Amino acid sequence: MTTDQFQRNMYIETPEAFDDGKNFDDDGRIKRTGTWVTASAHIITAVIGSGVLSLAWAIAQMGWVAGPAVLFAFSFITYFTSTLLADCYRSPDPVSGKRNYTYSQVVRSILGGRKFQLCGLAQYINLVGVTIGYTITASISMVAVKRSNCFHKHGHHEKCTTSNNPFMILFAIIQIVLSQIPNFHKLSWLSIVAAVMSFAYSSIGLGLSIAKVATGGGHARTSLTGVQVGVDVTGSEKVWRTFQAIGDIAFAYAYSNVLIEIQDTLKSSPAENKVMKKASLIGILTTTLFYVLCGTIGYAAFGNDAPGNFLTGFGFYEPFWLIDFANVCIAVHLVGAYQVFCQPIFGFVESWSKEKWSESKFVTAEHDVKIPLCGTYSTNFFRMVWRTTYVIITAVIAMLFPFFNDFLGLIGSLSFWPLTVYFPIEMYIKQSKMQKFSFTWTWLKILSWVCLIVSIISAAGSIQGLAQDLKKYQPFKATQ
User: Fold this and answer.
1) What number of CA atoms fall less than 13 Å from residue 383's CA on the CB side?
2) What separation in angstroms does the CA of 318 have from each of 52, 137, 142, 211, 324?
3) Helix or strand (DSSP H, E) at 335
4) Which of 240, 247, 241 is nearest to 409 (CA)?
């Protein structure tokens, strides 16, 4: 869930809305009705997603002490910077200033110029990375369903070799079709389906982990420091995998991109920034509790051998139908989530192209096509070619780099510092007219620099992981 989805879904004009001026907010839009309850629900929905699947592996790399500590540290930083961002929804005054409807609008309003362009670049890199990551994750889940049935039928010791590529192609075909639907972002049921699916597979994974711990299955090896040097990994592998695990946790907490859109659904009294801070606290606390349970109980279940994706790594074999259902939930969630993340990319490129080549019929002309049982469908040749090309490119990249943990870690590393830390801190400093080198200014800058260093080392860990995996990976071959 991201960008303008919330604002587009919330403002549905009805005849009753025009009967009375009281039905409008101070910006002329239909009166917002959101509360801390709905905002908390939006935050939980936005945060909990496929990132939860890698948390048991991340905890395994760092152990019982550092693993939960890093989870709590990221949750605190995410909450703290979200409170700063909440004060920037209105500018220049956080209570009575002009509303900003999206994250990028806030950056443009307060920081302007080059930083606005850098924000856009960071957002679009993140969105492209997520769509590639979702292609990988969805295909892994579909493969897991096929392998689960094979294991159930032939026994757990069968190889059940299956290639990811046919499932990536299937996922891409589905996305090509969905990408042609005009105004796909207005399908409000998409968020509901995504929320139900993400909670379903996360809860199933948590439940299976609890069951495995309760029955003593496997007697997993765990330790205070995680995977052991000389037993599980070499010294250098321990360092690199720890860095990568930090990136995986950062990915799991990525939601700053949509905070402003969520805040834009809140009613104006009491003040939106105060309500949003309360909602952020409740949302992050709930999410952190869920993450800590999934990560720690998953680690307790699998120990230092925790798979990168605890639903597709076959730490569980039975009940096979429940594992199949969980993986189907992941695939269904990501079919919709892919569209949510790629729509802003489509919109940006298409708007820019229409301005650049306004005289070109190929770019601007709409053509009506009658489809039996579906009515008239409006199509545009440029939109069809561009969106199809984008989906194909992301699918090919996913086939070349089908590494779940490495890719999630890289996306988390690249997006965490700029979008979750740097811009919220810089906007808060400028809007509050904070004195340079004051105590608050100094420690905010220190926090930003520390987070930048953490992002750099976690990105390095993920890149190193990709490089190592590529050495032994043969593209387009079936994997075990």
Assistant:
1) 21
2) 21, 21, 17, 11, 10
3) helix 320-356
4) 247
> Is there a contact between 451 and 77 (Cβ–Cβ < 8 Å)?
yes
Amino acid identity, position 327: N
Integer angstrom CA distances of residue 366 from 185, 277, 330, 470 = 19, 44, 35, 44
Minimum mean pLDDT among 140-144, 322-326, 389-393, 404-408: which range?
Answer: 404-408
Q: Which two tokens stand for residue 281?
A: 């606290």
Q: Which two tokens stand for residue 283?
A: 């949302």
Helices and strands (DSSP H and E) totals, the chain: 16, 4
Kindly state the DSSP code that residue 163 receives in the 8-state scheme.
-
String of DSSP letters for 336-370: HHHHHHHHHHHHHHHHHHHHHTTT-HHHH--EEEE
- The pLDDT tens digits for 181-232 are 766 545 556 667 777 888 888 888 888 888 888 887 657 889 999 999 988 8
- Using alpha carbons, select from 228, 220, 230 the residue that is nearest to residue 63: 228
What tokens were used for 127?
């969105």
DSSP β-bridge partners for residue 30: 24
Q: What is the pTM of this model?
A: 0.83
pLDDT, one tens digit per residue, over 345-364 is 888 898 889 999 988 988 88
- Residue 65 contacts by C-beta under 8 Å, 6 or more apart in sequence? 224, 225
